[in-house]
Description:
Blueprint: E1 3-5, E2 27-30, E3 38-42, H1 45-48, E4 58-60, E5 63-70, H2 73-81, H3 86-90, H4 107-123, H5 127-140, H6 145-150, H7 158-175, H8 188-208, E6 214-216, E7 219-223, H9 227-242, E8 249-251, H10 258-261
Antiparallel strand pairs: 1-4, 2-3, 4-5, 5-7, 5-8, 6-7
Amino acid sequence: xxxxxxxxxxxxxxxxxxxxxxxxxxxxxxxxxxxxxxxxxxxxxxxxxxxxxxxxxxxxxxxxxxxxxxxxxxxxxxxxxxxxxxxxxxxxxxxxxxxxxxxxxxxxxxxxxxxxxxxxxxxxxxxxxxxxxxxxxxxxxxxxxxxxxxxxxxxxxxxxxxxxxxxxxxxxxxxxxxxxxxxxxxxxxxxxxxxxxxxxxxxxxxxxxxxxxxxxxxxxxxxxxxxxxxxxxxxxxxxxxxxxxxxxxxxxxxxxxxxxxxxxxxxxxxxxxxxx
Length: 276
């Protein structure tokens, strides 16, 4: 199978990111000396080296691809863990849209901050540790390309950012009272295991059919012609593992990456034809 990329991705400084397009093998990493903590797939060059807004420009066997992603995956997992159907409890709404808090002008930035707060909060065992973690992820680690692009305009001081985070925390606790006990509980590592079990179902089934699929934790990339089959497998995997209806699955839109192309001076084909 050949994986290709139409452009050379860059970091937040505009410098080319070095990666090996031939690095296509993945493996699972478990944590804490147990088989039910962690288990995510790691190793593929498309996971850590290629920015998310550039991934739709990948090719497989010189064919265009689509990336399918579970919407608001971790909050949906938590409702499923409680044996609750998210849609019946909350409605068909985005878990990261908080009543009385989200405003249209800053909606995207606020949603990204909420996602970061939930992600770090689920992996932390106390609010203090969570705040330290989110400070590092959002405010200090300038080398994290994805977060620099998600948070182009942040408060100048940690104190100002803390005020925003406190308001977001209150909002999400009120909106999601049924699962608020999981915040700052350290359950994130167990959610990774459930996520990886769903991924294993998708990867094993697609591989058995001879269809290439690239996994980025809870999202998957395949050739466009296999999109319907991949979506059905993702839904099936979630329902097998969690025994609840699957979340909405969204597809990447090529129109959203047109601005990405404009950042590069010339397309560069990096296709290879080495077997996986």
